[in-house]
Amino acid sequence: MHKMLIAALLIASCPSQALAWGKTGHRVIAQIGDAHLSRRARAQVTRILGVETMAEASNWPDFMKSSPEPYWQRQASPWHYVTVPSGKSYAETVPPPEGDAVVALTRFSATLRDPRATIEDKRHALRFVIHIVGDLAQPLHSGNGVDRGGNDLKVTWFGKPTNLHSVWDVELIDDEQLSYSEMAAWLNARITPALVREWSDTDPRQWIADAVAVRDQIYPASGETALGYSYIYRNTPRMEVQLEKGGIRLAAYLNALFR
Predict the structure, then answer these.
(1) Which of 9-18, 83-92, 139-148 has the least mean pLDDT?
(2) What's the mean per-residue pLDDT of the chain?
(3) H helix and E strand count, the chain
(4) Residue 188, Cβ neighbours under 10 Å: how many?
(5) Which has more pLDDT, 14 or 207?
(6) Angstrom distance (rounded) from CA 87 to CA 106
(7) Cα separation, 32 vs 81, whole angstroms
């Protein structure tokens, strides 16, 4: 009981933002990404993950947030997001000492390229790469530095108290009432070869700039705190495009990484 209490206090005091996309959104991005892998990249992913699919691997870093180990509660906590104040670019910001999503992505990519890294280290790294690319597709994971990525912006969702970050993590996606595989199949069917070419930029700084542009459009109007059908109508298309972009970017990043 004492250990459980300590773990709970550590988790409660953790400064990290909420999970990005929730389980369904991360799986959708990973599933779309899997469909666009090159043959070489697929072989490397299979060698590293074994029977685990990319969709299975995509939520592991969020699951491990519940571990009381200092690595997960302190060191890895900031690796799920970046902070880009309004009017600035990512290049104008300074990551925290532990790094941010971009710093972590660079580190884990280096591990995947390292022929001396163990298969266990590569599996750890690949799970994080899959997850971080998904995180950076969620607009509120490029936070403005004011409200912790919308976590502090309290709203109601059809009368239920919540916050804007949770709306984008879970509520918009769950409103579709689709499994992750159904949603991935439907969204992937819309992605034309032209969109694949347009979205296959492997520079996370470009992904962040795109997310910031979307972020600044998804905040409710001043004084609008009761969110429902009108918000769904305005923002579901944005949410779906971000999932599609995340999947294509994940495939492009892994294809380049394992080229």
Answers:
(1) 9-18
(2) 92
(3) 14, 5
(4) 19
(5) 207
(6) 25
(7) 21
Residue 137 to residue 141: CA distance in whole angstroms? 8
Q: Is the pTM of this model over 0.85?
A: yes
Q: Please name which of 109, 29, 34 lies closest in space to residue 62, comparing C-alpha atoms.
A: 29
Q: What are phi and psi of 156, to 5 degrees?
A: -115, 145
Can you tell me whether residue 162 is helix, strand or coil? strand
Q: How far apart are CA 84 and CA 94, in angstroms?
A: 9
- Whether 30 and 134 have beta carbons less than 8 Å apart is answered as yes
CB 172 within 8 A of CB 228: no
The amino acid present at 144, given as its one-letter code, is N
Which pLDDT band, with edges at 50, 70 and 90, does 13 fall under? very low
User: How far apart are the C-alpha atoms of 102 and 109, rounded to whole Å?
Assistant: 10
What local confidence, expressed as pLDDT, does residue 2 receive? 40
What CA–CA distance (Å, rounded) separates 220 from 206?
A: 25
- Give the CA-trace dihedral at 57, 75, 19, 163, to 10 degrees: 180
- Count of Cβ atoms closer than 10 Å to residue 207 Cβ: 25
Cβ burial of 185 (10 Å; 0-12, 13-18, 19+) is middle
Q: At what angle do helices 39-49 and 119-135 cross, to 10 degrees?
A: 120
Q: How far apart are CA 148 and CA 142, in angstroms?
A: 10
Domains of the chain as residue ranges with CATH: 2-77+91-257 (1.10.575.10)
Q: Are 255 and 45 in contact (CB under 8 A)?
A: no
Strand duo 154-157 + 160-163: pairing: antiparallel
